[in-house]
Write a structure and sequence with these properties.
five-stranded mixed beta barrel, globular, alpha+beta, 5 helices, 11 strands
Length: 182
Amino acid sequence: MRDRFVGLHAGAVVTDNNQAMLFIGPSGSGKTTSTSVLVNSHSCHLLTDETVFIHRRTSLVEPFHREIRAVQPDPETGVLKKKSIHVDVFYDSVYTQPVPATHGVFLEPGSYAGIRPIYPAEALKRLIDNHLYLGCDYDEALVTLGLLAKDLSFVVLNYKTYDQLISMAPQTLKIHRQQKLV
């Protein structure tokens, strides 16, 4: 792993055109929710959840499957709790080959709902904020994050509730397919 990968706190799905779309944000921001909506209802495939490994100096995302922590109702009480679930049980389709990323979605819970494109400078700042220290040293990671900020198209998805996130996640797929980002 050393000097091979740059890590991001993100999830990734593979779209019907064999490209990866990243969902980026801290714990609890909706990465698992967004990826599961697209995989289980919109013909995408899970590439990775929670941690994205990007081959250094490229946009190539490595598959990384592990147990996930997802909100599920307790069978006895019905109360929603985070629990560990094997990725093959939670997702309808899991992808096993590396795929180039072309789009990124920064997930941001807040006071309003909407999707807005952002420019590379803002994307770079947000990528740095979500960088995970694994694999490459920081200078090498900055080179890769800079390339991603320049080469990928990014949006910010703001939402107030998880129901809004669930309804808005498919819109990012439509934007991805239309290639109409900044």
